[in-house]
Amino acid sequence: MTDSLVQIRQLKKNYTRGKQTVEVLHGIDLDIPRGDFVALMGPSGSGKTTLLNLIGGLDTPSSGSVSVEGRRIDQMSGGELAAWRAHHVGFVFQFYNLLPVLTAQKNVELPLLLATMGGAERARRAQVALQLVGLGDRGGHKPSELSGGQEQRVAIARALVTDPTLLICDEPTGDLDRKTADEILTLLQVLNREHGKTIVMVTHDPKAAEYATHTVHLDKGLLVDTVAAH
Amino acid sequence: MTRTGLVLANLFHRKGRTWLTLLSVVAAFTLFGLLQAVIVVFSSGADFVGTTRLITQSRVSFTNSLPMRMVPEIDAIPGVQRAMYQQWFGGVNKADNTEIFTFAVDPERLHEVYPEWVMPEEHWQAFARTRTGIIVGRQVADRTGWKVGDRIPLASNIFPQKDGSKDWEFDVVGIYDGIDEQWQAQTGGLYINHAYFAEASMFGGGLAGMFSLKIEDPGMAEAIAQTIDKRFENTADETRTMSEKDFNVNFLKQLGDIGLMLRWILFAVFFTLLLVVGNTMAQSVRERVPQFAVLKTLGFTDNAVLGFVLAETLALCAIGGLLGMAIAWFLSQGISQAAGGFLPPIILTAPVWLAGLAAIVLLSLAVGLMPALRARRLRIVDALAGR
Prior knowledge:
Chain A is α/β, with parallel strands linked by helices. Chain A has seven helices and ten strands. In chain A, the strands form two sheets. In chain A, strands 6-7-8-3-9-10 form a six-stranded mixed beta sheet. Chain A has a four-stranded antiparallel beta sheet with strand order 2-1-4-5, covered by helices on one side.
């Protein structure tokens, strides 16, 4: 499947806890086409966050391969992976993980410190990203002055500001009420449909999964099925 | 938004704690700057620059007296304008049993060698012709209420009179003052007439504790000092001749190894600082583990995160250290002015500043390296999962 953005083959991941080795993923094969919006679902301990971390280059597999845009990220060194993440992946976490000492604007600018551009250009791009998520007028506010939904929008702006190929979202609505969650999911859907971002999202919430184009179910470290949205 | 901005923002993420830590760094470096400058004074070699007077004392110690027969020999050495001899009397005010700096001197030689002491000419003349005469420093006069014409009882804690009594009586013939503020601050002593002391004392009449020499040319000071010491080399009374400032430093050194004491104080201060700043940085990194994980997630390398923590520590130590050194510089100016010419000036010389900069860097590494390595080692998935 050469048109796949993400290709996963026989992916295994073991963790060592004390003297015990636990295999979390037992040989996953998965292809994610460019422009797809995939929801990873499954019970706790099924390995969905582990799979997400491996796709996002936050962790390295015990065996098997992960290719993104044809590049084997499982074979990259720590430094190469960091550089790859900086240019190709945007991350959105359940608890937003904004830096509390920085304003929204500066939080969004943060990933751009790794790019070669001037301060004015960084500020302009951050402002564009904030406008895209509907917070163009809140750039001067610190995270503590924003609501949960607004914080998550800032986190999405931070994930978008480098114009990444892939958006990795780990329970992005897990800490939000239904209404706010729907707003965030709608925003992700817009980013997917109108801006062509490929999104991989872990969620427990079936309603959240309805926003995705495909839902992949995992159970006990194995891929159970893949369901396309109606 | 810049990396420096990020470092400074993170440094003040807990403002109260950072300010308090910063204050402790400032205080420590103020002390460091001042004490280092004092150590330099105490460990520096002989300094004859700008010297107009020399002090000749026994090579062993200024507590060893020298024979008066040396006076004409020193007077005759080329470049010496006048030698003044003085003997420590060990004066005690009998009224309140307090010690007063008291020296037995030749009045004319004192007047000539120390023009910084001022009083009416008739008082100088009275001092010269009154064998039991005593001149009183302004500060002593103000404190005791002694005035010209008074007869005052003094005890000596060293020299008894020929009848065995340590009680002496003197006639106040003058109140001397300093020529300027610095000298006025040193008018806490008394001068008695050496001729009377030599005649009445049971012993020590032919001796002087040290000689103050007025010299013709400051440029010759070092050569004169060497000539004098050479002149008395291999005699029973070997001498050591130095500038007044060096004499004063050596006087203080009698208290003990001041340099060593100061170094121990600095060691204690910096050891405490190490614990305070080290604890602050360790706590700061512990609190921000998820934030470091986020930075790594965004693409900052392990070494970049290590650099951020080290930069925070360096910023903390550099801001506090340089501020402290600057305060020390201002204080040293004040101290030097207050000390007048009594001691060599306490100056934050280039080596002291360099030592300060080295201390800032070493302290930063000592307190920042462990937390920085911890931040560097963080695995993203573990840190984000709170493990």
